[in-house]
């Protein structure tokens, strides 16, 4: 089984083995360079089932989970596809089924051996191939359901069922049919997945009289478009990310960046962030400069690293860092000169992260309550030259004292007022938080 070809991207210097689906990717056209792949859409395998009512059978089960739970989970994974098509799926325990699901190890008779824990998680065969309907899961994964302590069966199964129904891997990063495993709840199809499956099978039959639960309408996630957003106003906006870079302070918002040197906004800013960092995603969730001068950007389930010469590598999957949740909200380098550590923040959790091994130190998150008087769900964080940390949320920020290890009295304060000389808005006060 081929390892992931990092298509059109630069190979990471250290070898790694991102958890992924074992179905080989079809080659990407050579003109899709620099990550701006305009052909982002579902890909069909060429085959489809000629009938809408399909049966399935579970041959062997994973040892970690009860059979009942596995049955329920696989049914749920099939439901995301049946909800948007005329397809139905019925489990059978005897006789021949259309879809055969097995948990198996290493060599298992189909020339696509599994590889033990990690790496390849599962694979499935397309319709109209000689093994159509076969779905194999690697028995050696730590299968779990609904938590991020192992490999989530629901997510992986829903993806494999997409193959069994005729969908190839998609290059749309948030799609279920993206080849790399990410943990995301609730399970849902992206617009791309839905368009793909409906292209093959059409939309659901008109509902019978029975009240059916309509699939939630998933807001179409804006695909990364290339139209610049209108320029935001630093006095009224909140920020996606802030980072100290080469001793200057950069504020990021919707593809724009503000640059402050010695506390002063530089002329010509805000400017498009892509002027500094070619290929930077349209918006970033978090940014930081590491101790060797690389600049890291996070967006959704991916991250990019720019070296000192502003050469980009990536995107890489955040899951490769050992982090099983996407959407890092803030990141910064924190500590005294000798022992700076990188921290990643999301909601009420944070992780310590080793930038040289590109792994989080522990899969188990720590609680934001360690950062006393700092709220949860921060948008951005950075450290100044004196060693104070700053945490932003909305239009406010907290200044954090490294000696007392807590946010200072008198905070939060308005970002616009203190960093961008915005007029004091009498109406907005901190207690509106
Ligand atoms: Zn796959
Ligand atoms: Zn197999």
TrEMBL record:
Zn(2+) 2 binds at residues 21, 159, 163, 169, 177. It comes from the Eukaryota. CDD domains: HX (cd00094), ZnMc_MMP (cd04278). Residues 1-17 have a biased composition (Polar residues). One of its GO terms (cellular component) is extracellular space. Ca(2+) 1 binds at residue 141. Ca(2+) 3 binds at residues 115-116, 138, 141. PANTHER family: MATRIX METALLOPROTEINASE (PTHR10201), STROMELYSIN-3 (PTHR10201:SF20). This is Stromelysin-3. It comes from Eleutherodactylus coqui (Puerto Rican coqui).
